[in-house]
Amino acid sequence: MTVRTTAGTPDLSSKDPNWWRQAVIYQIYPRSFADADGDGLGDLRGITQRLTHLAALGVDALWLSPFYPSELADGGYDVADHRDVDPRLGTLADFDAMVAEAHRLGLKVVVDLVPNHTSHRHAWFQEALHAGPGSPARDRYVFRDGRGERGELPPTDWQSVFGGSAWKRVPDGQWYLHLFAPEQPDLNWENEQVRADFRTTLRFWSDRGVDGFRVDVAHALVKDLTEPLRDLGAPELSSEAALAEFPPGTHPFYDRDEVHEVYRDWRKILDAYTPPRTAVAEAWVPGARRVLYARPDELGQAFNFEYLQARWDAEELRRIITVSLADARAAGASATWVLSNHDVVRHASRLVLPPDTDTDAWLLSGGAAPAVDAAAGLRRARAATLLMLALPGSAYVYQGEELGLPEVADLPTEVLQDPIWEQTGHVRKGRDGCRVPLPWTTDGPSYGFGAGAGWLPQPPGFAAYAVQAQDGVEGSTLELYRTALRLRRKLLDGESLTWAEDVPPGVLQFDRSDGWRCAANLSDTPVDLPAGEVLLCSAPLEDGRMGPDTTVWLGR
Q1: What pLDDT, on a 0 to 100 scale, did the predictor assign at position 15?
Q2: What is the DSSP letter of 147?
Q3: What does the angle CA 115 – CA 206 – CA 261 come to, to the nearest 5 degrees?
Q4: H helices of 257-354, where?
Q5: 344-369 burial: b if 16+ Cβ within 10 Å, else e
Q6: Cα separation of 273 and 205, whole Å?
Q7: What is the pLDDT, as a whole number, of residue 514?
Q8: What global pTM score does this model have?
Q9: What torsion, rounded to 10 degrees, do the Cα atoms 67, 69, 74, 75 define?
Q10: What pLDDT sits at residue 513?
């Protein structure tokens, strides 16, 4: 086995290679975490300066959303160079310093990898534009002639995730595929140069001390490009939700069986390091298919989006938790749990919206239709957090949820940056509301995010959520997270649970094999506490009983 280390980076080979199985990983959206140079955009030096916050919080690792060179056509996921740092965010030396400081503090580092597409500014794509039809440079992407008498129609009826056709025409008449923004041309994973380049990228960051990778759009790399390309017949069949309409593994561009060859190849590279580098798939596919990405000879883990999308309903959550644990066990992986990320409405707001709420319409209303009770949302978010952290497996925490941040739904449309807003003709507001810069202090032009205003405006109410406002304050959401993570580290031993059957309606209760239990009251009436010593509550008990939207951890 080859052991690779980088000068200045601690050798982690003595650490538990299975650290990821029940880790808590904190997602950083770099442009919104901390701004060290005062230009309004978060950066790597800002992250390094704030790593003590993560160490004090008690997480095991940080996951860095894209920090690569990008024009920000899709918040950094339009990557112009997969092996460099955007100069607005820093340098490779800044990255190395951040990794070294994280490791000094006992934190692992996971980085985002974006293999489905590049930026249209990537050197390869610029070469393809100049090389012309039929060139080797164009074969790295998916270029096709159009239909119609003069090739004026797209090659197929495939639709972009962000709205509209998934094809864009170039001046010489050909069209290229972009499943996301037009500035994000899809790579052709049938091309060996593409595969070889990402092997190089995996080694590049692993050699710099990175401990793992989060794989963006892991289910879309390999497409059926046999001629003639097939139409789908309806726009909705271009979405991940349409996978059920196709035999498993046969959709033209999502979740094809052949994609697993790529990850088996990657696993050989990741396992060549000591300890092996970890990986987690972002794969928006049904659970039975998702766990294929999590097999030990592939990526090892996959995000559990059923859990993220679940209603605040005891019966639904119990079903999803049970199936998720069984699926992960069958794959030889550990389960993953997540409540918020950079793509969804923050759960402190989302969990109190009526179940049938169209979140796009809610965002368009500025969060006014329906109005959200912030106090009720925070109470439910705290209960959801303790429930998630009690489950066996890995928990992914999105920056700011430890502060109880709500969605900023009323951002003025003139400040929106998400390409969804323009590509949908102003029908969908997009994801900027969960990407608003973090508040660190109770005053200042950006509440401590930087010396000046941030790239998205923060609402005045953010002052009450700031780290400074909650640090050391008994009962604050920040202190709840710190206490929960400290307890969790002591309590976890084993990856199973046993459900309690004789519980009131709306209550979830389970025992952990490691000698403690969790009870969550999702109903609207108080219920009696189970037996055991109370270790932690998401909300004060009501005359010794669990009130609505309350989770309690108990020793047995």
Answers
A1: 63
A2: B
A3: 45
A4: 259-270, 287-293, 305-309, 314-331, 347-350
A5: bbbbbbbbbbeeeeebeebbbeebee
A6: 12
A7: 72
A8: 0.94
A9: 30
A10: 82
> Structure tokens of 295?
């097999």
Q: Look up residue 265 and give its amino acid.
A: D
**Averaged pLDDT, groups of 10, the chain, 556 residues long:** 35 67 97 97 98 98 98 94 98 98 97 98 98 97 97 97 94 97 97 98 98 98 96 92 92 96 98 96 91 95 92 97 94 94 96 94 96 97 98 97 98 93 91 98 97 97 98 98 96 90 96 91 96 96 96 94
CA distance 536 to 488: 11
Residue 49, phi then psi, degrees to nearest 5: -65, -25
Six-digit token pair at 174?
């050909």
Backbone angles phi, psi at 484, to 5 degrees: -65, -45
Partners of residue 300 on adjacent β-strands: 279
Cα–Cα distance for residue pair 42/90, rounded to 1 Å: 10
How far is C-alpha 195 from the geometric centre of its chain's CA atoms? Answer: 24
Half-sphere exposure of 205 (CA within 13 A, CB side): 29
Q: Does residue 495 contact residue 393 with C-beta atoms inside 8 Å? A: yes
Q: Which residue's structure tokens are 């209603």?
A: 311
- Spatial CB neighbours of 314, under 8 Å, sequence gap ≥ 6: 505, 506, 507, 508, 520, 522, 523
Specify the DSSP class assigned to residue 517. Answer: E
Q: Which two tokens stand for residue 63?
A: 């996951």
| The pLDDT of residue 9 | 38
Task: Tell me how far apart the alpha carbons of residues 68 and 323 are, in angstroms, rounded to a whole number.
Answer: 36
Distance CA 436, CA 103 (A): 27
Kindly state the tokens that stand for 484.
Answer: 């929960």
Tokens of 107: 């934190």
Distance CA(174)–CA(454), nearest Å, equals 40
282, 327, 401, 495: the catalytic one is 282
Spatial separation of the C-alpha atoms in residues 345 and 355, rounded to whole Å: 14
d(CA 33, CA 43): 8
Catalytic residue among 216, 240, 327, 418: 216
User: How wide is the angle at C-alpha 286 spanned by C-alphas 72 and 260, nearest 5°?
Assistant: 75
Question: Is 90:43 a contact under the CB 8 Å cutoff?
Answer: yes
Please give the Cα distance from 465 to 474 (Å, whole number).
Answer: 14
Residue 282: active-site member: yes
- Asked if 9 and 411 count as a contact pair (C-beta separation under 8 A), the reply is no
pLDDT the model gives residue 48: 98
* Residue whose C-alpha is closest to residue 108's, from 64, 165, 75: 64
pLDDT for 320 equals: 96
- Sheet with 24-28, edge to edge strand ranges: 300-302, 278-281, 212-215, 108-113, 61-64, 24-28, 394-398, 336-338
The Cα 416–Cα 365 span in angstroms is: 15
81 in catalytic set = no
